[in-house]
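Example 249, ligand iron/sulfur cluster.
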Amino acid sequence: MKTYLSEIFSSVQGEGPYVGERHLFVRFCGCHRDCIFCDTNTDRTETVLIEMEPGSGNFEQVPNPLTVDQLVELIKQVDRKKNNRRISLTGGAPLLQAHYLRELLPRLCGEEYSIYLETAGDLPQQLKSIIEWVDVVAMDVKLASVTKEPATFPAHWQFLKTCRDFDVEVFVKLVLSAETHEGELMEVAKGIRKAGGENTLVVIQPMTKAEKTDAVPTGEQLLRWQDKVAGVLPNVRVIPQTHKMMEML
Ligand code: SF4
């Protein structure tokens, strides 16, 4: 089996509660969504860019698509110093490649890697098919007032409930813009509580300037939203994308 990847590199995790940990990122091509704040080229690429020396900005290119054997070998090469805490599967949407992941993940778990899945959080069946090999799920709940796409809440709730049913660690990321509707935000908070429980960790991630929008929320907005969400879900933090501040991958 083969798949299309865009990048493989080692860097610090820039988002969420594991911020600052060293992760090895495997970025998959392709996404089923079109968020207005997307900062990633999700198109299929002819080659995979591989940064063998972390932070160097020098990339080797390997032709796409890659077999599972090829990817495992490249991961071992990038992690030759064994200094990455986890393998971060990111995209695009890695769950669109669930069949490939079903072949890849047992191999990585056999190498004793911890698997961290970054996902839009709306493909519950695909998640279920690979969840036995996943250690941490970083899932989004997408607000229509922010993404400018139709809401997909039932899929998000089913996704979160699947993590709970399988007792897999999960946190929810909410990317919020200046255009966030507070009513929608509170509907989301209640949905998270119902599907994931009151103690579900929620990370509010302020949107940064993107190609299609510059509706960056103010500090006053973020603090007000944190207070409101905390009334429903006490474990809510505001964490920006820190890797961008450091101009790192
Ligand atoms: S789900 Fe992620 S990769 Fe896909 S369009 Fe939205 S931000 Fe971009």
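Summary: Residues 182-196 form the longest helix (15 residues).
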